[in-house]
Design a protein that fits this description.
The protein is built from 14 helices and no strands. By secondary structure, it is an all-alpha fold. Helix 2 crosses helix 4 (92-104). It starts with a helix and ends in a 12-residue tail after the last helix.
């Protein structure tokens, strides 16, 4: 039984143990079940959107390197892709961000190797970058980078939406990206808050840029508080909804 189903089972088991439930207990059980199922659904949608975007980036980079007819499209490749795919949300901007995502975060490939039916095929067919091997992961990210400064692919996909990742990718310094990934996860920042912290140069103000080990010493635990909401623009597009559709707020 996975964690998501287990949460629902606990609520259901609590209900079944009530021989003569009250109306308040009925309404509470219904609300708890709804909230648990909704939170898990939102989490799943965001995770799949992020994984989809990494794969899209992979396909584009590989095509740009090895496509038999790539010369025909040149710099207009992403625009032509948008026109050909003709699907809401799959546009030139998304393709560009997906390509960058694939190039900056090669560690995400580990998630596919773990779950693929044929891990050998994936491991040999999808590389972190076309010219590099997975074993050189630290060197891909930064010549002097340590594994300590690489956010795990599981945390990236489960605890950050693609909107968060897109904001973080604006940082050219790998350590700065790791800093914002870490702080965003720990602080459960919204995309708006993350953007504000980046614009006010929190990375430099914190002193971490001059003393990276200081960041590691502050990492004690990661919160499990859900930070993703169905109102994320990428999430709306991924499930085919209108981002301007009014949703009820409590």
């Amino acid at each position: 039984m996975d964690t998501n189903t287990e949460q629902l089972s606990i609520i259901a088991e609590g209900w079944l143990h009530k021989d003569t439930p009250t109306f308040d207990e009925l309404s509470t059980s219904i609300l708890q079940t709804h909230q648990s199922a909704q939170a898990n659904a939102i989490k799943a949608v965001n995770q799949m959107a992020t994984l989809r975007n990494w794969l899209i980036g992979c396909y584009i980079v590989e095509y740009e390197q090895k496509g038999s007819d790539r010369a025909r499209y040149g710099e207009r490749l992403l625009k032509r892709l948008e026109e050909r795919v003709n699907t809401k949300g799959l546009n030139e901007t998304l393709f560009r961000n997906a390509r960058t995502f694939y190039q900056i975060y090669p560690q995400v490939s580990l998630l596919f190797e773990k779950s693929a039916t044929s891990s050998h095929k994936l491991a040999t067919g999808i590389h972190p970058m076309p010219s590099d091997e997975l074993e050189t992961l630290p060197a891909i990210i930064h010549p002097t980078a340590s594994d300590e400064f690489i956010t795990s692919p599981k945390s990236l996909v489960e605890k950050l939406s693609f909107s968060h990742i897109t904001e973080i990718m604006t940082q050219k310094d790998p350590l700065a990206r790791f800093f914002y990934e870490t702080e965003c996860i720990k602080g459960t920042w919204s995309v708006k808050e993350l953007r504000r912290q980046i614009s006010t140069n929190l990375y430099f103000r914190s002193g971490v840029s001059k003393n990276p080990q200081r960041l590691l010493s502050t990492i004690k635990s990661e919160t499990n508080t859900p930070v993703l909401t169905i109102r994320q623009p990428f999430t709306f597009e991924f499930v085919g909804l209108n981002a301007n559709y009014p949703t009820r707020r409590r």
